[in-house]
Amino acid sequence: MTVYPVAIRLIHWLTAILILAQIAFALVNAVAYEQYPSLAEAVVQAHISFGALILVLTLARIAARARQGAPALPGSMSRAARRAVQLVHAALYALLIALPFSGYAKLAFLDFAPVLFGVVSLPALPFNSDMANAARLFHQGAGTLLGTLLIAHIMAALLHQRLFGSAVIGRMGWPTRPPTAPQMPIPRTEKRQSGR
Amino acid sequence: MKPVPLALVAGYLLLAMLVIALVPFGNSGADASVGNEPATVPLATVERYGEDFVAYAIVRRTDGSFRRMLIAPEVLAAVQADAPLPEGTRILMETYHRPDRVGTVFHKLKAGGRWQYGSLSGTGRIDLATGPKASCLSCHARAAETDLTFTLPAIRAAAAGHGLSDFECGRGGRSPCALDVYRDGAAW
User: Fold this and answer.
1) What DSSP state is assigned to residue A176?
2) Which of A166, B40, B57, B180 sits at a 20 to 30 Å CA gap from A11?
3) What is the pLDDT of residue B2?
4) Residue A20 in contact with residue A27, Cβ under 8 Å?
5) Most confident listed range (B32-46, B73-87, B163-177)
6) ipTM of the assembly?
């Protein structure tokens, strides 16, 4: 297996789009809430609904990965780099699960019952403003950590691809040709012979 | 004797100027403030939407914008120290980006022990109907220790006869000020 199963690839890129949308919603709320309160409320409602969708997708992705596996990391990667990849992936999954829960808790502990996509109603929790504030602090910290790890994730993938020639990005892509066996480096002597 | 490089002399001069600028001259500034309690600014009653409100606080921003906080007089009379705001409390927050022109007016109402939020445009048109609002609650959650009301210290100060609270918020834009600003800056 050289690429992730198609379900995991679809979930990966859908999650990426949803996370970008979440960041955009948060920014729109911060900038527009005073001048356009209705818009701010709409984007916060969308933020809540998209967060729940990300949670469902992440759980589905973990299940798919446990069942279908993942392609092996390039052999050129060091053991430390492999360990770092595993840790970052695990942390990303944990944050993508924790963030929706903490966002829900922040509002639900203030006796607010979120409605997802205008259809699915979630219950409010017993009023506790201290718990709501604790959830808010966690949500804020986890969001910052997620952003940091996502930048590290993207930078690491680009670095491995561009600098070290490891085909890590292709594992999440859609190959235009049928996947072939990983290319082995050609020894210098063979290169010279083929040039003659 | 070796000539002293000009750059070295200029460097020492610059350092000396920095030290002089950073060291305060004596303690005349501290002396000047001793015994000078800020004068109490009396509370003004204003009419809004056919009702009377008391302006109990102004929150000034670094960009020149400010917010004026208004509360119903009967609520102010019923406020008790160290108790949550009473049922039926209504607070208005007027936003000004020009001194002569009110922008969005936010409305906050305590009903059934829970806060509801809404907003009006500067012309009085209802923009956001009053109710539980996620966008408002998610920000006000940080004011958990003051009944989800950032300016509660100012309300209590006004209720205790200390007049108008005039806050300086160091944060630009529309991000909420730290709770310390309201706790430490109220007109006590």
Assistant:
1) S
2) A166
3) 52
4) no
5) B73-87
6) 0.79
pLDDT at B20 over 50: no
Contacts of A121 in chain B (CB under 8 A): none
DSSP characters for A95-146?
A: HHHHHHHHHHHHHHTTT---EETTTEEPPP----HHHHHHHHHHHHHHHHHH
Residue A183: both structure tokens together: 């290319």
With beta carbons under 8 A apart, name residues in chain A contacting B127. Answer: 37-38
- How far is the CA of B49 from the CAs of A143, B56, B88, B122, in angstroms? 41, 18, 17, 11
Exposure class string for A72-84: b at 16+ Cβ within 10 A, else e: eebeebeeebeee
CB contact under 8 A, B135 and A33: yes
Strand intervals (E) in chain B: 44-48, 51-61, 66-71, 90-98, 101-111, 114-120, 126-131, 165-169
User: Which tokens hold the place of A84?
Assistant: 């770092």
Model confidence pLDDT, tens digit, residues B68-90:
999 999 999 999 888 889 999 99
Residue A37 to residue B119, Cβ atoms within 8 A: yes
Q: Helices (H), strands (E): how many in chain A?
A: 5, 2
Residue pLDDT, tens place only, A63-86: 999 999 888 888 888 889 889 999
